[in-house]
Amino acid sequence: MVVDLGRYGIWRHASALTPELAVDVEKLGYGAIWIGGSPPGDLRLAEDLLEATDRIAVATGIINIWSVPAAEAAASYRRVGQEYPGRFLLGIGIGHPESSGEKYRRPYETTVAYLDELDANGVPVEGRVLAALGPRMLRLAAARTAGAHPYLTTPRHTREAREILGTGKLLAPEQKVVLSSDPDRARSIARPAVENPYLHLVNYRRNLLRLGFSEADLDAASDAVIDALVAHGEPATVAARINEHLGAGADHVCAQVLVEAGADPLPAYRELAKALGLG
């Protein structure tokens, strides 16, 4: 069964997601919640979020191939999918070598083998998406899954990803946002979330270099990099930036709201929902 994500969703680390937040986000009109941070393979958090809500979809962004065996992911998918049909999407990905150590070998072939196991264990193509940045993984996403869930990208990448995926495949990028009209304040919130660890990880660096940034830009976490990767400004400005992804070929964009340490993200999600015309 195809999962309807709507045009806009939220991306939030598993450790910061609660059923109470899910209820509030659903009321605001968002179509999906993406569970970030390589959640456990038992998918109990997904069940908790789905149980607390009525219609919103839940997706993993992402289950890490190295830490969750395909058989476990498939069993959890079947359980959640049967209980909440049409509302759960399994996002999987290979992660990055820095977190996987010596076992990170032949990532493409490992991903193919993982997809083969998901096939054998009853996870349908339309029930799964692949974290994909480069052309080869994007082509694999198009061939073997419902589509792609790129992370830490730009509308330019979205346009190029759509060309590779072709029509009829889901393209659901993540977009970091800070609601602040003060550029210096916005960058002070955004920079730590981008620089550490992402600008030091080889797969993200490779993708950003491919998009035209320099090694010096990445090493310095320059304003140009931060401004390209994190939409900031008034709610209308941020909403316009999110909509650039849709104009570039995305079907759905999940917003990761960044706030100061300890701050409640819900007010920002509320302001953004209004600017996006949700509700």
TrEMBL record:
<feature type="domain" description="Luciferase-like">
    <location>
        <begin position="19"/>
        <end position="117"/>
    </location>
</feature>
<dbReference type="InterPro" id="IPR011251">
    <property type="entry name" value="Luciferase-like_dom"/>
</dbReference>
<dbReference type="InterPro" id="IPR050766">
    <property type="entry name" value="Bact_Lucif_Oxidored"/>
</dbReference>
<dbReference type="InterPro" id="IPR036661">
    <property type="entry name" value="Luciferase-like_sf"/>
</dbReference>
<protein>
    <submittedName>
        <fullName>LLM class F420-dependent oxidoreductase</fullName>
    </submittedName>
</protein>
<dbReference type="InterPro" id="IPR019922">
    <property type="entry name" value="Lucif-like_OxRdatse_MSMEG_4141"/>
</dbReference>
<dbReference type="Pfam" id="PF00296">
    <property type="entry name" value="Bac_luciferase"/>
</dbReference>
